[in-house]
């Protein structure tokens, strides 16, 4: 790893927060991935970046390049990421070589997207999931990273029975422990749904049942559209029901115009502010692009016919223009 002495993290990581300097080369790591890097990693192989590279003559290329493909965003890992250790290791390794902070999403829990259905799938069994998430954490190792654990997994309870919920909580608790034990310079966030899904007091109990005590914090608004102000209110309400308050991050990838009438490719949404750090009392720890802008939510809304996770330049342009 490259621990380079710096006064503050790169421009763009600013919500009025000056970050401490790095440790010198060879010094012990601090466990804070923001302090150990010089800004967020821009994935050169994100779906938008790949589309831009492969479509040099498309009239939409410049707008997508400038507004989306050059911005830091998360890489999602699931059962398409085989072998998982190699996929995660390559991604985190490239970010580490650039002295940048990568954002990863673990999205492979059995029974995934139980209520929505568009992104169903996941590992075949709890045992397979435990092996997968173990290899995920091992592949990060000592390198800095941010990991969002299993979007929708705690919001889906209304579509599951008691045995399924207990089984899922066991898997999430195991996942949190793996990152704590095996990736000491990664911050792991359990997904906590969004401001319009589960009541804050209920979500607080669900987070506790899924091992929040051993996670760095929780993530909100993943793949959704609630404004940062609405999500801040919700996050603070969740914290008010926790014995030990936890930091939280907000997905701002598509929340520039707030919510629409649906969660699945609704029209009229807009890009939110790019990734940056925050902090302070009752403020998000980070604003992140967790959902990849332009990736479809599923065969629905203005993305009819586009499978979940597939990049669409038309969806991207809608987000750029806010229509």
Quick structural gist:
A hairpin with an 8-residue loop joins strand 7 (276-277) and strand 8 (286-288). This protein has 8 helices and 8 strands, in the order H-H-E-H-E-H-E-H-E-H-E-H-E-E-E-H.
Q: What does this entry look like structurally?
A:
With 323 residues, this protein is of the alpha/beta class. It has an 8-stranded mixed β-sheet, with helices on one face. It has a single domain (47-321), classed as 1, 4-beta cellobiohydrolase (TIM Barrel, Alpha-Beta Barrel). The chain starts with 46 loop residues before the first helix and ends with a helix. The protein contains 8 helices and 8 strands.
Bin the strand percentage.
5-15%
The total of beta strands comes to 8
Stretches where pLDDT falls below 50 for ≥5 residues? Answer: 1-29
Largest beta sheet: strand ordering: 1-2-3-4-5-6-8-7
Shape: globular
Please tell me how large the radius of gyration is: 18 Å
Structural class: alpha/beta
End-to-end Cα distance, whole Å, is 43 Å
Average pLDDT number: 90
Overall helicity: 25-40%
Number of domains: 1
Biggest β-sheet strands, sense, barrel: 8 strands, mixed
CATH topology: TIM Barrel
Q: Output the number of helix runs.
A: 8
- Please, what is the CATH homologous superfamily? 1, 4-beta cellobiohydrolase
Give the SSE string.
HHEHEHEHEHEHEEEH
CATH architectural designation: Alpha-Beta Barrel
CATH class term = Alpha Beta
Keywords: Carbohydrate metabolism, Cellulose degradation, Disulfide bond, Glycosidase, Hydrolase, Polysaccharide degradation, Signal
Protein name: Glucanase
EC number: 3.2.1.-
Organism: Kribbella sindirgiensis
């Amino acid at each position: 790893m490259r621990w380079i002495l710096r006064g503050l993290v790169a421009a763009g990581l600013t919500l009025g927060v000056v970050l401490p300097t790095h440790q010198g080369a060879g010094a012990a790591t601090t466990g804070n991935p923001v302090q150990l890097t010089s800004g967020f990693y821009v994935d050169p192989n994100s779906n938008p970046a790949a589309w831009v590279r492969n479509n040099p003559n498309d009239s939409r290329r410049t707008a997508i390049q400038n507004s989306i493909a050059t911005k830091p965003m998360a890489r999602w890992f699931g059962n398409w990421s085989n072998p998982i250790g190699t996929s995660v290791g390559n991604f985190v390794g490239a970010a580490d070589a650039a002295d940048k902070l990568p954002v990863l999403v673990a999205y492979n829990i059995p029974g995934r997207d139980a209520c929505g259905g568009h992104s169903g799938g996941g590992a075949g069994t709890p045992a397979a999931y435990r092996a997968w998430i173990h290899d995920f954490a091992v592949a990060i190792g000592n390198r800095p990273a941010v990991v969002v654990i299993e979007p929708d997994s705690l919001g889906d309870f209304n579509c599951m029975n008691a045995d399924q919920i207990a089984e899922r909580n066991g898997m999430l608790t195991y996942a949190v422990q793996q990152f704590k034990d095996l990736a000491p310079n990664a911050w792991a966030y359990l997904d906590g749904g969004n401001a319009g899904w589960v009541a804050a007091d209920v979500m607080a109990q669900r987070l506790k049942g899924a091992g929040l005590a051993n996670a760095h914090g929780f993530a909100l608004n993943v793949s959704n559209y609630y404004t940062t102000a609405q999500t801040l209110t919700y996050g603070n309400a969740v914290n008010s029901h926790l014995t030990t308050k936890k930091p939280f991050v907000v997905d701002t990838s598509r929340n520039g115009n707030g919510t629409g009438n649906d969660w699945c490719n609704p029209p009229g949404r807009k890009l939110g502010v790019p990734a940056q750090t925050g902090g302070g009392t009752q403020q998000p720890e980070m604003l992140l692009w967790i959902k990849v802008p332009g990736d479809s939510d599923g065969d629905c809304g203005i993305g009819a016919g586009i499978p979940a996770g597939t990049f669409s330049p038309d969806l991207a342009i809608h987000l750029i223009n806010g229509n």
